[in-house]
Amino acid sequence: MIVGATVSVAALAVALPLMLIDGDTATNADRQTNPLHDARLYVDPESDAAQQAEQWQATRQADATAMRALAEQPMAIWLTSEGSLDDKLMAALRKSNEAGTVPVLVAYDIQDRDCGLYSAGGAKNVTEYRRFIDKMADMIGDDRVVVILEPDAVANLVARKSGECLDADGRQDQYRSLSYASQRLGGLKHADVYIDAGHSGWVKDKPALAEALERAGIGQTSGFSLNVSNFRPTDETVEYGRELSRLADDSHFVIDTSRNGNGVYVNRKFPDHGWCNPPGRALGHYPTTKTGEPSVDAYLYIKTPGESDGQDPDKRKCFDGPKAGQWWPEYALGLVQRWPQRLQPAEPEL
User: Fold this and answer.
1) Known active-site residue 152
2) Where does 180-289 show beta strands of DSSP type E?
3) Which of 8, 30, 73, 158 could be joined to 37 by an S-S link, Cβ 3.0–4.6 Å?
């Protein structure tokens, strides 16, 4: 196993075969209320981490071993345009079906995405976004999938006043898009959809957030997601999620634990950029649908560990990282090397 903050090559060699084994046991409550309790999550054999491990094998064997530990974890597949559906979604559905596993998908193409910041883009308008969702739904069909719906969108609508990012019409259009996606994807036979609700350090007005989730169509879905692409500790996020759940008709939720193993980074020079490629972070709790928390359906690696959060003209703000979504192997390596042992998969009983 990876011990403390140092990666032991010999230990990792023992750990690697265990990465796909979930040592936790489902409780009766899990089986009754968690729609994901029996899901085996899809691992992409051609992920950036897997390719990086292969590339390093000849010259950086210890780093390659560490990177393999990341490559063995189920990670979400981000769908950011109609083109990505033909490229990424088709391949993921085919390979997950062959493996008998369930892919985690992220729908991230809403118009005026990210308020024009580092991850700006998305569909041009409501009509184009609906076309994206319709095509995604048609491709999924009766396949079993988990969908994380539009990270940051609902939280932005609550946290930003009209005019700060979108005018009244733009805000209404985003709610229309979210509601349509919730109904269309949530209506699929074997799709569990979770509308993103930001993170515990962002929206403090939980009643307003619950109301926004209702407007976005949470009643048509399996619940909401928290901490996507962020670093809030799991225990803090669970408590925040419980409180939000009580306000949102006892909805269940999933948590992104991909990079929260060392918690939040405090950026003293740029307090508003503590989320952008912070140094010293670590992988968090390994992906599992056996959380031991009645309202938490899964801990997932939704943000791809090792993909940049963004790039700023002032390189100090995002620690000289590449553009948002671009693979950054050295950052990924650091996340694995600092992965707390208690958050790694346990060895199975012999």
Assistant:
1) yes
2) 191-196, 223-226, 252-256
3) 30
Residue 304 has, within 13 A of its CA and on its CB side, a CA count of 23
Instruction: Return all residues near 268 (Cβ < 8 A) that are at least 6 apart.
Output: none
Q: Is residue 190 a contact partner of residue 143, using CB atoms and an 8 Å limit?
A: yes
Between 68 and 13, the higher pLDDT residue: 68
pTM check: above 0.85: yes
Q: Which residues contact 235 (CB under 8 A, 6 or more apart)?
A: none
Q: Which residues, at least 6 apart from 184, have a Cβ–Cβ distance to it below 8 Å?
A: 133, 134, 137
Total residues found in the chain within this entry: 350
Q: Which of 63, 109, 152, 256 is catalytic?
A: 152
Instruction: Walk across the sheet containing 191-196 and list its strands.
Output: 77-79, 104-107, 145-149, 191-196, 223-226, 252-256, 296-300
CB 293 within 8 A of CB 241: no
CA 223 to chain centre: 14
* pLDDT at 163 (0 to 100): 66
Is 309 annotated in the active site?
yes
DSSP state of 170: H
Spell out the domain ranges in the chain.
9-343
The H-or-E segment that residue 54 falls in is: helix 48-56
Contact 185, 137 (CB under 8 A): yes
CATH 3.20.20.40 fits 9-343, yes or no: yes
Give the SS3 label for residue 158.
helix
> How many other CB atoms are there within 10 angstroms of residue 190's CB atom?
13
Say whether 38 is catalytic: no
Of the listed 44, 63, 112, 114, which one is catalytic? 114
Q: What is the pLDDT of residues 257-275, one digit of tens each?
A: 999 999 999 988 898 888 8
Task: Identify any residues that bridge with 192 across adjacent strands, giving them in sequence order.
Answer: 146
